[in-house]
Amino acid sequence: MVFGFVNKDNMALLTDLYELTMAQVYFKEGLNKTAIFDFYTRPVSKRSFFINAGLEQLLYYLENIHFTDESLNYLRSTGLFEEEFLNYLKDFRFTGNIYAIDEGDILFPNEPIVQVEAPLIEAQIIETFLINTLQHPILVATKAMRCFIVAKGTVLVDFGLRRAHGTDAGMKAARSSFIGGFAGTSNVLAGKVYGIPIFGTMAHSFILAHKDEEKAFEAFAKQYPENTIFLVDTFDTVEGVKKAIKVAKKLGLKRFKGIRIDSGNLLELTKEARKILDENGFKEAKIIVSGGINEYKIKELLDNGAPIDGWGVGTELVVSADVPYLDCAYKLVEYDKEPVMKFSKGKVTLPFKKQVYRFYENGIFKKDIVCKYDEQMEGGKPLLKKYMENGKTIKKLPSLKEIQEKAIENIKSLPEEFKDITKTVHYIPEVSEVIQKTVEELKKEYLKKG
Amino acid sequence: MVFGFVNKDNMALLTDLYELTMAQVYFKEGLNKTAIFDFYTRPVSKRSFFINAGLEQLLYYLENIHFTDESLNYLRSTGLFEEEFLNYLKDFRFTGNIYAIDEGDILFPNEPIVQVEAPLIEAQIIETFLINTLQHPILVATKAMRCFIVAKGTVLVDFGLRRAHGTDAGMKAARSSFIGGFAGTSNVLAGKVYGIPIFGTMAHSFILAHKDEEKAFEAFAKQYPENTIFLVDTFDTVEGVKKAIKVAKKLGLKRFKGIRIDSGNLLELTKEARKILDENGFKEAKIIVSGGINEYKIKELLDNGAPIDGWGVGTELVVSADVPYLDCAYKLVEYDKEPVMKFSKGKVTLPFKKQVYRFYENGIFKKDIVCKYDEQMEGGKPLLKKYMENGKTIKKLPSLKEIQEKAIENIKSLPEEFKDITKTVHYIPEVSEVIQKTVEELKKEYLKKG
Asked: Which CATH number is B42's domain given?
């Protein structure tokens, strides 16, 4: 019996086979000069911006990637690799440089999010894992931030672990939604590993196991008098609220943390619940809702005056249900100091090692310009920073809380139209004249050769 | 710097906080009689059936779950748990029974897929991980089987690792798509861990790094004369096909494995490519396509006569793009031998420990009946089998290949309307009279108490 956990020792094999077969050909040819690869995403509908996340995990991978004897034995068994190349892999380490936009920064389509500068073989071998590590965190951090924007100060908690696509997605969803402004997660391991605050209420099964709602409430509140959020919708929500109050009074609690409603008409039920709680002197008890919550429902409920204090956001957050994948890519843009580009229809890439400059006007985002790395763009703030040099991380990484604070600050500088979750602004950063000219020249050159 | 890998030692903490706080209350109350929980999925649009997958990983988890000192120290640090309960967790093992439908079997909504019979505390603590482990594999195996149905014998390969939601999803997607009829995966680690055949071609970056398409083709084909699939669409697809042929001839190859087209009008381009390959005597060279492939595109292309031999199916498979989550649940249905059910609006559960009987007519699926575990349904085949007893797996698990063969056999017994990917059959299994009667009685009882 096997689970198939990925770990530090086998993660080098978590790659597409062609990365390794191509690497062997490069190796045999001695084609291993410095390559520059861009990781970027193309535009998608329903997203006017993205929030960057996942960089720390990428740096961990790059610092630790190695091929164990067990991995090499497997590769040998495929019959696709020669001993000389397997020997090369035995000593393989990532020795390149990484330029990246900070986690928590706002991203737009077509601009490099991470730029890899490394010997071609290394830059090729890391491709698959790099995309895997970055895409899902960006999806979730972005979805979380869309929730944060419409939640207007109410509390958001990640309840999505059970519906995340596997164990790692559950971890990444907790971390990324925290970056996107969430207060915490229900995921205990994410609490331990990333230091994220953990939250929880109670389940319907807890009520049902006690047979009697009141008895269940009493048992929980006795154990956690300061910390109980009563789940009130197992049978009848309004009756459930009354029973929660009855139990709180019986136990002599002056206050309790709150109630959770997981089904039914949330607008009507929360209004009714608020009224009953207030009438009984429990004005501080919070109303939490869950069950199919997303940014659209949060906005609708709050716009209609639902007295909701907190949200358990699960499935739709962690799978990014309305945009479950990015049209992202990792493309060679420079090899041995020469610009490189691809001409496949609709999938044109921008050549050169690059920089992205962000411009503001009166503190509000105005535009991004994508240019060559050595171009100067006066008044612009360079977004790509050197995070890794010769395979070693050279920047002190911020704490997760600092990344979250940065993300929230960034959003303040975004024009309102970008923050309207009901519309999509199809913003594409400008490309510098130098790059544009090279694109034209390479096209001409290609057509001449063609 | 931290990645956050989940492993055998920390997986017990990959759970929602409330599972552990509820467990502490159960523990303090001594509420720990035998509970039965059902894992099942509610109906979703765009899916007429599901394929079961993920059971082996669930059994691994249940056999190995334990709380290390490090885990316990973290729980202690939250201030939510008493020493007495932490001591209980120190010796925690899963000691229950598992009844499950086989991997590769067809599933319908509302029938138990996995049934847990265990002391209440154990059954509660495993909830979150259980759902996480089963949902994504079922999604992917189902999506894969939909592709298999329309692929009509052409070859399907999982190319989705890079766009899967994290590392574990990449592993599960490879395993689950194989169950759903795929021939293999690009994921090398899945090849090693699960013994799945691995496949690969070459990337656009490989062509671009050589600057010259022909040189790139030649370098690869020299290394892998038997095993080269030329990626022909980096510049101009038709020219690319011609160059592949030129290189094959130059190297004196009588045959080569094939070409891959990743962009453009796949119907026109594959027809043109087939013609050129045939005219040049490379009738055995296969045509593989990739890029945004899903079951709908496979059907459309083959219906229109595209001469395609194989498909790299990536993103939309591994995230199950059109149905990125199941409305699945894990619900208490029996406690201490008494039937239990929940009355929340639209989320009614079926009480009792159950069995599912499947009926066929002339070898074709006719219906399922969900009944009490001890009811006899003559002529029906019971689907739930006892996989685990007292925490130990008691059934020899089939190989992945055997599961795949079973899944393909099962599909043959499914009426054609279920296999039409363009329509959804909203089939819901029957519920036995005994269960229906109990539901009515429990409702009455509840209303009386209310």
From this structure: 3.20.140.10
